[in-house]
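I have been asked to look over a protein record a colleague put together. What it holds is a sequence and that sequence's fold in token form. Please read both lines and tell me whether the tokens look consistent with the sequence. I do not need a full report, just your reasoning and any doubts. This is what I was given:
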Amino acid sequence: MLRITRRFAIMLDIALIRRDPERVRDSARRRGQDPGFVDRVLSLDEQRRKALTNVETLKAEKNTLTGSVAKATDKAAAAAELRPQIAALDARIVAESATLPGFDEDIHGLLSDVPNVLDTSVPSGAGSDENVLVREWGTPRTFDFAPKPHWEIGEALDILDFERAAKVSGSRYSYVKGAGARLQRGLAAFFLDRAARDGYIELAPPLLVSRATMWATGQLSKFADAMFNDPGADAFLVPTAEVPLVAYHKDEILDGATLPLRYCAHTPCFRKEAGAAGKDTRGLIRQHQFEKVELVWLTTPERSFDDLDRITAHAESLLQELGLAHRTMLLSSGDTGFNAAKTFDLEVWLPSDGGAYREISSCSNCTDFQARRSNMRFRREPKAKPEFVHTLNGSGLAIGRTLLSILENYQRADGGVDIPPALVPFTGFSQIAAGGTPS
């Protein structure tokens, strides 16, 4: 039976800030942020603890007085004599206790926009130029003809239609049709089949979530302006299935024996891409609506970084089965996302633009950052003190980007496209002929 609990959410471990403030400051500096919040939080925390100590001291004094009344021979006389002192203590207890929520709110306000503390293995750097190559797989294909970008291939095969999508919805939308739609559906089935093989429980989650859920999973901060929402309902379209998958156990205490838990979901994702003006305006790379299979782990603190390697390997294995050359990059401090303590990006090689690697999956260990915001804990033993779980997420994989990778890497000189053999059982065809006919 699940157990539901609620409490005031704290984003970063206050014990870590007390114990190792320099580590928190260093993480902020490496992310390019002002570390001054650490001293402000420590000052507020000290004031809060002093106020709490004062409350406890006053309560002890009151208990001593009420105890002396109980022991007195003439209890009525003792009560009459001590009642003014007890009343004064009560008033001081109320006044001192009233300051505690203010300290909590101030600490919450300071920490709500502070990102996760980086793992020490994350390389320092301002952005993607400082990301570190971890490994490469496969050899980029060489062509004896001039390869085309996926949007030209798709339009020529009549399986991608950007013009009509712009007429219906605006820029950065697409129709995927005919054999392309079947290929897209086959990719989703292939990814979900492999996730089931790797022990993931498939969920079909809600696509609209509350503001509280978005905040709890770290999607809402002063840096996040890319979400589609309905202000009247105060609900948000999911930017990734990570949100409803992580929130599935929000405000619960889990049985530690069940960990790690692995979940997956195939959903559309919706993003304004407000910070990407002018980037990848053609094709499927960066759209407002796209499909993805998301992988999420809930695990224990001591194994979470090993599990990050496992979830990354699961995503890599999909690209390997599809025969797509790719590389794995460890993101630098300046390129690591708000929620994450450490992230690996998988980048697939594309022949368009003269040959380049483009992100197709991002796998992150968020440690206890989302769990603290979501109040999601576990017990190692039935009566043990609850601990926060660690959450991990990864794309397994982004469907549109995988589709375009297949179009570009498996294109033929005659304009047709071959289908990777591992995918054929899920598509029902092994090629798309030059006329757009699958066979």
